Amino acid sequence: MQTLKESYPCQPSAAAGQKVLELTVNNHPGVMSHICGLFSRRAFNMEGILCMPIGDGKLSRIWIQIAGTSQLDQIVKQLEKLEDVRTVVSHPAEHEVFAKLEEYFQGS
Amino acid sequence: MNKMNGAQLTIKLLERFGVGIIAGIPGGSNLPLYDALSHSTTIRHVLARHEQGAGFIAQGMARSSGRPAVCFATSGPGATNVMTALADAKLDSIPIICITGQVPQSLIGTDAFQEIDTYGMSIPITKHNFLVRSARELLEVIPAAFRIASEGRPGPVLIDIPKDVQLEMVEFADWPAMPQRECVKQYRKQDIEQAAAMINAAERPILFLGGGIRHGNAHDAAIRLAEKNNLPTTMTLLGLGSMPTEHPLALGMLGMHAARYTNLAMEECDLLLVAGARFDDRATGKIAEFCPGAKIIHIDIDPGEINKLRTAHLQLVGDAGSVLAELLPQVESKSRQDWLNRMAFLKKENSFIIEGADDPRMPYGLIRQIAALADHETLIATDVGKHQMWVAQTYPFCRPRQLLTSGGLGTMGFGLPAAIGASLAHPQRTVVCFSGDGSILMNIQELATAVEQRANVKIFVLDNTSLGLVRQQQNLFFGKQYFASEYQHHVDFVTIARGFGMQAFALGASDDPVATLTEAMQTRGPCLVHVPIGRNEEVYPMVPPGAANKEMIGGENHANA
């Protein structure tokens, strides 16, 4: 159960913009509950979340879009405390992962 | 090759990791575990009467010893019952491992008998949890649970094991080793130097110790640092005992029910050296007005606590004992005469009023009398309420892990089972449990466990026939509208205790209360003492919830006015 946690320095926050977090996590049925539960119980704002297995399926990649950056430091620290979270990388809002998905999220 | 089923493997691993006592209750989904446990020659099972009791018995063992303790519960109601004890352990960072039975995997998700989503339910109230899907996984999961429970900031871990996993046979070559705990150290030598320079340059510093001090065994280092630099020292509820109450530098507990001088001293400090404390609202009051003129040096093993509620000017993320020991040689010997004189003046002008100190029928008098009858080895457990605050204010604690109390969650019903657990872990010691009439009723079934285990616990029920702290808030903040806080029916606790087979004393009927208390304290084995207390005995001073700590109600020393 060796977990390797690398923390990357957070980018300086752009004014009230969005951020994209890239997580590498252990892939098992409860891991999404851990991540989503953390956001809801600590009143962190999550705009969007994507999760797919990577490699041989032992790990998953999770992309999270967060609104506002005032909580970023706490969000990253609390995510890193989760046992199933291997790494957390913070990207600026311009990261294209969510932009590329836009066509699947149109309409009212 | 080793060959056994999952339940046997679980018990063998617990034995190998040094577990000597497990508190729990069997049920349909954990019977294979209990069958395996019945064959253990090194683990003693303590049968609780409610799973919450089992959870708090484990907490009592863990809080008093510092080592992870284990409890068992079955699926469904067994699991829901134990959740309160896990949540309590989460908020106070207590290493317990709860192993629950679960319905067989083929039935998970079918609303089977006694099925609930134990895994999902325990996510927010554990440090980590597992749903074990094969017997082989236990070889990783159980060592990991011990590591996680005690590594860094400790906390509760839940392992949910479906019944078919308990019965599944597994073969393996080697036993897993006890995993190494990873050391947390995220500061540099320069940070220590900077912290020492800030302490040396400060004119009015205060050392502020929390529950992290006992986890890190940091009390010696903290006291040496305080003495070398003459740092007045305050403690949170969970930090009490880090520095003995009688120590000349000790300012006692801060916050909602602190002595006036403690909160007033905090107002004046220019540097707050915080170690193992998390700026809980009961300690800080209105956070924006807490220590308004102070720079903050925050020592904590959990990086998530840094800048969570109060921005630190300097952070030292690591083990409090190591950090304080590294600071010691860099910090100057200082007399701080002006600052200590100021402390003495504040203490004199705003001394703590101990009403009824010499009357053992009064709350403070009772606590002082018990302290006089206790020795330094005596452990003190409390429940939650007025009695808890009276104990925190006035009991002369002399070492960490002496006080077992529910701080973060504030769980009524904590005291009795936690006291039993402490007594099981320390059978040679006396364990005093201060409780109230509201609290004791919330886990009173564990009187049976105490008698069955011959636990050396002395239970003092301070009976004010009310939910005292609720009633006090209604008195102060809700226009004396005493609603739902006064019990209309009065329970005969002495008869109840005797009905459980426990010796009991009625202090209210005693002609010689000191003699009665002495007899109770000297009785080997469990006993209960009923202590009638007036409903109007309030806990003062009190900071209104949400107010700044300087806005204290009551407790003025009118002699100095």
Q: Output the radius of gyration of chain B.
A: 24 Å
Beta percentage of chain B is: 15-25%
So what's the overall shape of chain B? globular
Q: Which of globular, elongated, flat, extended, rod-shaped describes the shape of chain A?
A: globular
* Unreliable stretches covering 5 or more consecutive residues of chain B: none
Percentage of helical residues of chain A? 10-25%
What is the helix fraction of residues of chain B, given as a range? 25-40%
Termini distance of chain B? 79 Å
* Mean pLDDT across residues of chain B: 97
- Structural class designation of chain B: alpha/beta
Most extensive protein-chain contact, per-chain counts: A-B, 15 and 21 residues
Quaternary status: heterodimer
Q: How would you classify the helix and strand content of chain A by structural class?
A: alpha+beta
Largest sheet of chain B: 6 strands, parallel
Question: Strand content of the residues of chain A, in percent?
Answer: 25-35%
Provide a count of the helices of chain B: 22
Q: Total strand count of chain B, please? A: 20
The helix count of chain A comes to: 3
Which stretches of chain A are low in confidence, meaning pLDDT under 50 for 5 or more residues running? 1-15
Summarize the structure in words.
The complex is a heterodimer of chains A (108) and B (561). Chain A has helices at 31-41, 72-81, 96-99, and strands at 6-7, 18-26, 48-54, 59-67, 85-92. With 108 residues, chain A is an alpha+beta fold. Chain A has a five-stranded mixed sheet with strand order 1-5-2-4-3, covered by helices on one side. In chain A, a hairpin with a 4-residue loop joins strand 3 (48-54) and strand 4. The longest helix of chain A has 11 residues, at 31-41. Chain A starts with 5 loop residues before the first strand and ends in a 9-residue tail after the last helix. Chain B is α/β, with parallel strands linked by helices. Chain B contains 22 helices and 20 strands. In chain B, the strands form four sheets. Chain B has a six-stranded parallel sheet with strand order 3-2-4-5-7-6, with helices on both faces. Chain B has a six-stranded parallel sheet with strand order 11-10-9-12-13-14, sandwiched between helices. In chain B, strands 16-15-17-18-20-19 form a six-stranded parallel sheet, with helices on both faces. In chain B, strand 2 (21-24), helix 2 (31-38) and strand 3 form a beta-alpha-beta unit. The relative contact order of chain B is 0.11.
